[in-house]
Structures
1.
Amino acid sequence: MYILGIDIGSITSKAVLLNKDNEIESEEIIFTGYSSEKAGEGLLSKILDNTNIKREEIVKVVSTGYGRKSISFADRAVSEIICHAVGAYFMDPAIRTVIDIGGQDSKVISIGEDGKVGNFVMNDKCSAGTGRFLEVMARALELDLSSFGELSLKGKSPPNISSICTVFAESEVISLISKGEKRENIISGIHRSVAQRIYAMLKKNGYREPVAITGGVARNIGVVKAIEEISNISLLVPEKPQLNGAIGAAIIGIRSKNFT
Amino acid sequence: MSKIDKKEIPESVLKMKKIMKSYYFKAKFAKLFRRKIAWITSGGPVEPLIAMGIIPVYPENHGAMIGAAKMGNELCQKADEMGYSSDLCSYARADIVCSYTGGGPIGGLPSPDMLICCNNICGTVLKWYEIQARRYRVPLFIFDTPFVHTNYTEEARYYLENQVSEYIDFLEKVTGRKASMKKMQKVGSLSVEAMKLWQKILNTAVNRPSPMTAFDAFFYLALIVTLRGTKVVVDFYKFLLEELTEKVEDNIGAIPDERYRLLWDNLPIWYKMRWLSNKFKEHNASLVADTYTTAWCDTLEFIDENNFIQTLGDAYSQIYLNIGVDKMADKIIRMIDKYQIDGVVMHSNRSCKPYSFGQLDIQKIIYEKRRIPTLLIEADMTDGRKFSDEQVGSRIDFFMEVLKERKGILL
């Protein structure tokens, strides 16, 4: 008997298959593309292929993420706020705060001792401080986003880049490029800009340590280091931060009363 | 579908619409009735005006009407074109534009003979009213209320006593008539009676299920804002109180299946009232209390009913928006306990800075003291261009899920 957690994000979609001992049997990450429904179906068939288990052995499917309601084969849809909290609490029940930086939004969630969500905040109307922001910057710099982390660590004197608006920040980056500023410094500045935004959200929501960081952006060591530097908090990064939401969804599936 | 819609429009709603219509009719044709018109800020001391037969008109109530009629975007766009920053208060922007264009749901407000600006609600009103004083070339009186950070001092009391007498002098000068203290006292008593009734009306929401929501209160509020000090308000609120009491006795809730009780903070988002009301209803959540409409009755403790004019300044300077954050938080905590609140919804209002500045601190205080979560919605009361359906909708869904989880319903 298995439980499937599916997280349909704005850029990537993730799936985690848990067995009834809460162990990960299989996992998958794909690009969401234009259809959340198709992404969900794609994840399901990949998971089935990976494991050779039959569809009917998956007794519960819980979806989350912005496309959660498009998954017709899901038994229930739960918001990513709850799923990230449950995922992080499952990873380490001591965690009191989660920073999740996804493709189109970032959030700070506080978790009580009982594992329940206290307050949460999300980024406001601007995409500054999200994965999308970093994508826009990578395009301006003609670099692959995956190289951002390592490169930024070489940046010695990061310039100030607006943390208020993605469009303004992009033009700042373009003008820095034309002034001949080193790429690693610019990337380092970009990460500081994201980190400032996240730190403001941490302060806004209030935080207690330990603080974990999840979502695709947590794979970027430059962003993690920048947040640590600005906030003076050492962050816990799960082994697979991108899967945290899907893990939380699957755990919720396990906890559901009618799971047998 | 709930059973509240359409054919069950409460009689009070129809009555109130009639009263408001007649009020605006009288104001529009004040010259025919040989009455003078004063424009006054929503938190301003209106009683002396009523006592002297001056018709008070409220640009802020006009702003609310503009918002509810969904005309805010167009007027705010026009204000942008006139050179006003879109960071300014949208009531001010919409009102100024209407003055120049005769736009808005009632073709602009009737021209004022004088302007009464009380800065107990914000600083923007000073500049707003100065602009209008220049526009209409009429005298402006500024009723200055020092901010009450912690305690209301003797110096403040003395200062406000003087403000009240200067205010009355001003009115006597503009009208050319002597003020009657007896009349002032009579109007004051009616005003206090209306405030007491308004508090009782809001109190009906302590019942489970609550017979009214904040969305109803936002509607019924217009009377105590515009006509307090007159008998018509007292009569109407008595009627409304009866209607609500009957609902309580019959166990009829404002929403069909009330499971969560929420508190609203800040001004309504006028152009999204129905949308928000339905959104919360979908989640079985009733907004049973709010800080906004409570502001029109929570200074009762400072008023000496028998010495109304003497304590007028004390009351008007200690309204919700003119006190420190700790005092605001105390009031909210008391409301949370009184109305048995599960969660707080704060409207971070682009327009209203004094209302929105302290919200994050208050949110933290609430969480520390009562472990109750808060949702912060970023919007604007009248300028719909600052509202995003998708963002606000998904945040409400998330928030309601958190409340469900806390009640053990989700997992």
2.
Amino acid sequence: MADQPMSIFALAQRGMSAQLVRMNAAASNLSNAGSLARSEGEAYRPLRAVFAQELDARSGLSSVRVTQMMREDTPATSRHEPGHPLADENGNVWVSPVNETAEMVEIMESARHYQNLVEAMQTAKQLMLETMRSS
Amino acid sequence: MSESIFGIHASALELRSQRMGLIASNIANAATPGYKAKDIDFASALAARQSGASRESAMAGATLYRVPVMPSMDGNTVELSTEQMAFAENAVGYSATLSFIKGRAETLSRALKGQ
């Protein structure tokens, strides 16, 4: 696989994998929405996938890969709840700064890109089959 | 050999296939920060190929960056609607070229069979 020029199928597959990583990160963020922590440092921070292009010089195709998973640098909010088991000495608990709407939009956008790739791959596959079929 | 049988259609099909990969790359990188969408000027690539340039140099000479309608904040210039249109147009062009090639091949096979 590595010593062949990249095909359009490999390209679509890599793109789809990258979108899947992004969608999983958003789903993790959603499931941790509203989770509480004892201190600001311990609070859950949203995960983000960082994409970069990966050029295959022999075929001229550029696929995409996930270079790193980053934690978003948003401050956790505190809530005064003295009776809570996780409350600190001031009676505060720290809530994870997850924006549910933003995460849903992230998942929707990711799904759109995924669909687009599937459709491009299907068209390419159909054209290839037509080319191979002798009349 | 294939040049004399299929004429312009042989190089056209090759370039259509290359362009399909290029547009698919744009679609795959629709969410990559800083990615600049590319496309080829098909007419000039075909003209270069007809005048004897190799496939690589014809492609490289006609590859241009797409001018975005509305650039996004992260420097990405892929617009999915534009790419979808280009991909569809290219697929139709590929199909048309392919049917021309099939027609030529059929003509030849009929001549060989003596029908």
